Amino acid sequence: MRTVRVIGGGLAGTEAAWQVAQWGVPVVLQEMRPLRQSPAHHSQELAELVCSNSFGAKASDRASGLLHEELRRLGSVVIGKADEHHVPAGGALAVDRGVFSRDLTQTLAQHPLIELERQEVQRIPEDEIVVLATGPLTSEALADDLQRFTGSQYMSFFDAASPIVVGESINTEIAFRASRYDKGDADYFNCPMTQEQYLAFWQTLCEAEQAEVKDFERETAKFFEGCLPIEEMAKRGEDTMRYGPLKPVGLRDPRSPERFYAVVQLRQEDKAGQLWNMVGFQTNLRWGEQKRVFRLIPGLEEAEFVRMGVMHRNTFINSPELLQPTLQFHQRPTLLAAGQLIGTEGYTAAAAGGWLAGTNAARVALGLEPVSPPNETMMGSLIGFVTSASPKHFQPMPPNFGIIPSLDIRIRNKRDRYGKYRDRALESLTTWQKQLQPAMVS
Ligand SMILES: Cc1cc2nc3c(=O)[nH]c(=O)nc-3n(C[C@H](O)[C@H](O)[C@H](O)COP(=O)(O)OP(=O)(O)OC[C@H]3O[C@@H](n4cnc5c(N)ncnc54)[C@H](O)[C@@H]3O)c2cc1C
């Protein structure tokens, strides 16, 4: 039987290797630490949590909690161990990070079908079934080779992303649909500001608290003068933003003849028009500060954010161009990828991609058809998003309810709506699971 090779022993790679072994297929898991450390990892354990020890909200009517539940039902080793080593953290699934990673390392090392190799892989192996899961800090040599394989235009090394807002939470009594100079099809949401509103917003933005920037991120950021954080732009002068992303020229509210002092634009992010990206709002502000300051924008008072703005080093491929919904590369179906490298964001999302890539790598080895989870599940929505988003503006995405297909009925109460999403997702997962051949646990 063909062996599968998984490169990178983070959240995605650990889950992928485990799932391959559950199908009775031998797997080699290659991890470069401790021979070579990444700028953010500190230990030699598999599945190290590089920052927070939280996997997000536990409740199954929250996006992360629903993904936990789906993974639990699918036999995820990462979520299984997170449950086992959880620590009190209010509504969040948080873990004792040392015990969690050590236990996963031992569990995988003891599995008869898993061989753990400590090695930096510098080239994508040819003629093998391979899962790439080397994460946002993929080593330079492998990133170079991946760039050669995919074509340089399909790789990003820095994540400068603006916040994304749920369309339903935009106040359309204030925000209006239009394109600058009426070009296109009224494609944008526009949030207009009077002089007084603009000055209050500018002042608050200049004083808002920034997140700590790591040294390796500061260095990468130097190359990106072109996409300045919005707060830096604000600090350059009272009018700088009005001559940049907040310029009001060419924008008219079809409902009124009023002229505006400044306008914030939001661009559609997904095909269904459920998610809207704040144009030019890449930022280093702390997440709480982003919510506080950006809700001062008229029309966004009640904005629900599915992803906050970020600026950090992040190697990721243009998955909508390169990957199938099975996480196989179009150009080479024996090569699969998972984790932050494919543009899912967060620990749980990395484990979810690892589950799918590992399952499909094993299925390829066994001559079975690869699968992809239904869109109604959080896992299916997330994988669907990263493999079908607009390639031009592709940015990593965490699990959220904005990417899941709408319900047939409109439910105004958010908690009730999310509860319905959960019920539909779990029902759909159960049906799908029955169609998969049972894993051949060794
Ligand atoms: C600084 C930072 C902080 C973050 N904080 C959070 C957070 O608090 N919460 C959250 O949910 N998400 C966070 N993320 C986002 C993301 O969820 C995590 O990075 C997550 O660990 C991604 O999982 P992964 O498996 O894709 O990558 P990783 O967990 O990074 O695993 C990749 C593994 O591949 C190895 N590797 C790299 N190159 C090679 C090579 N050439 N050969 C062999 N091995 C290699 C690395 O050593 C690493 O062990 C953060 C990301 C960064 C960069």
UniProtKB/TrEMBL annotation:
Keyword Kinase on entry: no
Compartments (UniProt record): Cytoplasm
EC number annotated for this UniProt entry: 2.1.1.74
InterPro entries (UniProt xref): FAD/NAD-bd_sf, MnmG-rel, MnmG-rel_CS, MnmG_N, TrmFO
Keyword annotations from UniProtKB, A to Z: Cytoplasm, FAD, Flavoprotein, Methyltransferase, NAD, NADP, Transferase, tRNA processing
GO biological-process terms attached to the record: methylation
Keyword Transmembrane helix among UniProt keywords: no
Residues at which FAD binds: G8, G9, G10, L11, A12, G13
GO molecular function terms attached to this record: tRNA (uracil(54)-C5)-methyltransferase activity, 5,10-methylenetetrahydrofolate-dependent
Cofactor(s), by name: FAD
Catalyzed chemical reaction(s): uridine(54) in tRNA + (6R)-5,10-methylene-5,6,7,8-tetrahydrofolate + NADPH + H(+) = 5-methyluridine(54) in tRNA + (6S)-5,6,7,8-tetrahydrofolate + NADP(+); uridine(54) in tRNA + (6R)-5,10-methylene-5,6,7,8-tetrahydrofolate + NADH + H(+) = 5-methyluridine(54) in tRNA + (6S)-5,6,7,8-tetrahydrofolate + NAD(+)
Domain MnmG N-terminal: 4-367
Domain of life: Bacteria
Described purpose of this protein according to its UniProt entry: Catalyzes the folate-dependent formation of 5-methyl-uridine at position 54 (M-5-U54) in all tRNAs.
Similarity annotation: Belongs to the MnmG family. TrmFO subfamily.
Official protein name in the record: Methylenetetrahydrofolate--tRNA-(uracil-5-)-methyltransferase TrmFO
Originating organism: Phormidium yuhuli AB48
The organism's taxonomic lineage, starting at the top: Bacteria, Bacillati, Cyanobacteriota, Cyanophyceae, Oscillatoriophycideae
Protein's gene: trmFO
